[in-house]
Write a structure and sequence with these properties.
By secondary structure, the protein is an alpha+beta fold. The protein contains 17 helices and 24 strands.
Length: about 475
């Protein structure tokens, strides 16, 4: 399920580095490179040398956004970085992060993963205070709140922020002499911290630490804010809120398989989902294949649990969508073939179990099924390692509206007929909870159940802030 219009889209990756003996801009670059899967629209790095903050932001992938000379002039011992998928505001250079604010009380750069659902009200309030906005993102609203907070120190600023902001935010904040990392009280988006050669690194996922040879220390806890400066690392604030509601789609789709989320390897969790799916929806078949890459681990789990052999049946071109050259009409008409190709020797004459991670709009799945039938598959049994998505996300996943969500408008039988599969089975909510671990109260399941951790009326269209400018 890899069509850009038919997948849940994430809301960025963030990095922070405090390492006086290292080239922090270069470390940040390679950490962002490991988080490229979380956003491909723009990237940026801000660095402080103890006296001033300097930044480079650009559109495109991490490898397109920075040149060697950019990193060379970003000298200092503290850095933050960001790679963006837009959940609030268009894909424009003015919305690239980190956002830099020279405020009345403090200068800072800020990188944000998440979505602020009361951003419109906060923006109107800040404008009455005389704040001018240069972007159309909720990230700048967070930054303006911090710089204009009617308090004197960072502990109080963070407390003020958490009282005012509703929604999801994992932040890295750069001041002239410190690195601050904040995770919202619900813990919607991940954030972890590690050590590297006597310094510290904060990142959205542990795979970014692995990429640098850093050692993972722990997750930053929901509602926790830490600061790193000349005095070392310490916790600035810890929320007393007991309710945690981390996004279940980190385990299903967003996080890289080699990342640890809540102390569990994502690859292993996805294998467990596949195994549970096999128990819930068994079928007589010859081969199990996964739709690459995000469903591969679940397909392996399904195969191992069912005893049906696993094989690659679809190959993915990982560089589709990475060019600025528009395809001509003939190439555009190839559609899903630009992203996938079949292995006929694996598929031909076989009854297939095809494992996918989720179905959102259902625009891609019929083409994949058709592709496999043309390659000679005799039966196609589609298995989805997530429950039906029936509700839009309220916390920053750019998923779809109610009228676009196929499971909100069709029965499972109707979806089966629409996509052209011989059978269709979704993982149950209970099975998903069992696969991930816990009792379900520590994850947000709102897109499946409609029970969101914030009031639905607070939800905001991703371009809402642009209509107020």
């Amino acid at each position: 399920m890899e069509d850009d219009d038919d997948i849940p889209q994430e809301s960025c990756g963030v990095v922070g580095v405090y390492a006086p003996n290292e080239d922090v801009a270069r470390l940040t670059f390679f950490a962002l490179f490991a988080l490229q899967h979380r956003g491909q629209e723009s990237a940026g790095i801000s660095v402080s040398d103890g006296n001033a903050i300097h930044s480079v932001t650009s559109m495109g992938l991490v490898t397109q956004a920075f040149k060697e000379e950019d990193l060379a002039r970003l000298s200092g011992h503290i850095a933050i970085g960001h790679t963006r998928y837009s959940t609030s505001g268009s894909s424009l250079l003015c919305n690239a992060q980190p956002i830099v604010i020279n405020g009345p009380n403090v200068d800072l750069a800020l990188a944000h993963n998440g979505n602020v659902v009361n951003a419109l009200d906060l923006k109107k309030e800040l404008e009455t205070l005389g704040c001018n906005f240069s972007s159309t993102t909720d990230t700048e609203i967070i930054a303006q709140l911090l710089t204009n907070a009617p308090v004197s120190d960072w502990k109080q600023r963070i407390q003020y922020l958490m009282r005012r902001v509703q929604g999801a935010y994992s932040l890295t904040i750069l001041t002239e002499d410190s690195l601050i990392a904040v995770r919202d009280p619900l813990g919607v988006r991940p954030l972890c911290i590690g050590t590297i050669n006597g310094g510290w690194i904060v990142a959205s996922e542990s795979c970014a630490l692995d990429n640098l040879g850093a050692d993972l220390v722990r997750d930053i806890e929901p509602g926790e804010a830490i600061i790193i400066d000349n005095d070392g690392l310490r916790t600035l604030h810890k929320s007393k809120q007991s309710k945690v509601s981390s996004c279940i789609f980190e385990q299903i789709y967003f996080a890289r398989p080699d990342s640890l989320i809540d102390g569990k390897l994502t690859y292993s969790v996805r294998k467990s989902m596949g195994a549970q799916l096999a128990r819930e929806h068994p079928i007589d078949a010859d081969v199990v294949i996964g739709i690459p890459d995000s469903a591969t681990a679940a397909a392996v789990g399904y195969a191992q649990e069912s005893g049906i052999s696993y094989s690659e049946g679809l190959l993915k071109n990982r560089y589709v969508g990475r060019t600025f050259i528009e395809p001509d009409q003939r190439v555009r008409g190839l559609g899903v073939r630009l992203k996938f190709n079949t292995l006929p020797e694996v598929v031909e004459g076989k009854k297939l179990v095809v494992v996918d991670d989720s179905i959102v709009r259902g625009t891609t799945t019929p083409h994949v099924v058709s592709l496999l039938r043309k390659a000679g598959a005799t039966e196609i049994h589609l298995r989805v390692c997530a429950p039906p998505i029936k509700h839009p996300c309220q916390l920053g996943v750019d998923m779809a509206s109610y009228n676009e969500l196929i499971a909100a408008n069709k029965t499972i039988q109707e979806i089966k007929n629409f996509v052209g599969a011989d059978s269709l089975g979704y993982l149950s909510v209970e099975g998903l909870i069992e696969s991930v671990g816990g009792n379900g109260t520590n994850h947000c399941l709102g897109c499946f159940t409609g029970n969101h951790p914030v009031p639905v009326q607070l939800s905001m269209h991703k371009l809402a802030l642009e209509t107020t400018t």
